[in-house]
Write a structure and sequence with these properties.
By secondary structure, this protein is of the alpha/beta class. It has six helices and 14 strands. Helix 3 packs across helix 4. The chain has helices at about 5-20, 75-85, 110-120, 140-150, 250-260, 280-295; strands at about 30-35, 45-55, 60-65, 90-95, 100-105, 110, 130-135, 160-165, 175-180, 180-185, 190, 210-215, 235-240, 265-270. Strand 13, helix 5 (about 250-260) and strand 14 (about 265-270) form a beta-alpha-beta unit.
């Protein structure tokens, strides 16, 4: 198969979907999912969009979790289009900063994402198919936490598989990412307008809470706590750049050690020369690995 730049693929699928979300001639279909459908309270930050394949049988489901860029960036939705075109129903979860470029990364309730996963698993879109969690960066951290917690909590059903990219083996602290620029009219990059809130111009002044909560509690979720991924017994995929300057490759290697002790099915792929975000050729290879992992563990 010829090498096609991942960014070009993304733009094509975004364009096709925006032309007609309901056309049977397009490879995917976009569906808004309400909080009520997922059993979430109206105060929950979680929002969701579902991308399903058109004119082909659904092979399985994925719950996609974004990184620290927040849920409003569109990156995760773009990848969901590609996965849906490959036959997977993809539930894109925004769990933080869905409508804003001001990403304050703290006080995130993990159980809300579990409720969305549980709704999806039992929805008409999957019809008893298996479902995987798939997270990138801080979304991978959330996926790891949710897999470990759900596997260790009576009455909960963990995902059938777990896929992560650029992941950490320990809980990372709260984070505030102020976008100093915004996009206007599609491509014009201009400074953000003045704000009356001085904290926004000095993120270090903001006192952040613990990033994660489970049923309102931060017990076992404090910063630098090791994520006990060995509690999750299903298949695990880890991809990581060997030159990642944000979360070093040692974190992926630590996860690999835990999975070796656990046993069972797992894959760890380290990409030489790649950072937190991969270049085109490596990204295409990573996507091939992900699709192979899904085909072997969700069908």
């Amino acid at each position: 198969m010829p090498l096609i730049r991942f960014a070009i693929q993304v733009q094509i699928f975004i364009l096709l979907t925006s032309m007609s979300a309901n056309s049977s001639s397009l490879p995917t279909r976009l569906i808004d999912v309400s909080q009520k459908e997922m059993g979430l309270d109206s105060t929950s930050e979680v929002r969701a969009k579902l991308v399903v394949p058109n004119n082909q049988e659904v092979k399985g489901g994925l719950v996609l979790l974004h990184g620290s860029e927040g849920g409003g960036s569109g990156h995760t939705l773009a990848q969901a289009q590609l996965l849906a075109a490959s036959g997977y129903a993809a539930l894109v979860i925004c769990y933080k900063s869905c409508d804003s470029s001001l990403v304050r990364f703290d006080q995130i309730e993990i159980e809300d994402t579990y409720k969305a996963l549980d709704w999806f698993r039992n929805s008409k879109y999957l019809t008893s198919k298996k479902v995987a969690l798939y997270g990138v960066s801080r979304g991978a951290e959330l996926a790891m936490l949710l897999a470990a917690i759900s596997a260790n909590t009576p009455g909960l059903k963990p995902p059938d598989a777990l896929a992560t990219h650029a992941v950490t083996d320990r809980v990372v602290g709260g984070f505030f990412w102020y976008h100093w620029y915004h996009y206007e009219n599609g491509d014009a990059r201009k400074p953000l307008p003045p704000t009356q809130d001085p904290e926004l111009h000095n993120p270090l002044m903001i006192e952040l809470e613990q990033p994660w909560r489970w049923r309102g509690s931060t017990e076992g979720l404090s910063e630098d706590t090791r994520i006990p991924i060995e509690r999750f017994k299903g298949p695990v995929l880890v991809t990581h750049g060997a030159k990642d300057p944000i979360w070093t490759v040692d974190k992926a290697k630590n996860i690999q050690k835990s999975l070796k002790k656990r046993g069972g099915t797992f894959e760890v792929h380290l990409f030489e020369g790649e950072g937190h975000r991969f270049r085109a050729q490596a990204e295409n290879k990573r996507c091939e690995i992900l699709l192979k992992f899904l085909s072997e563990n969700l069908h």
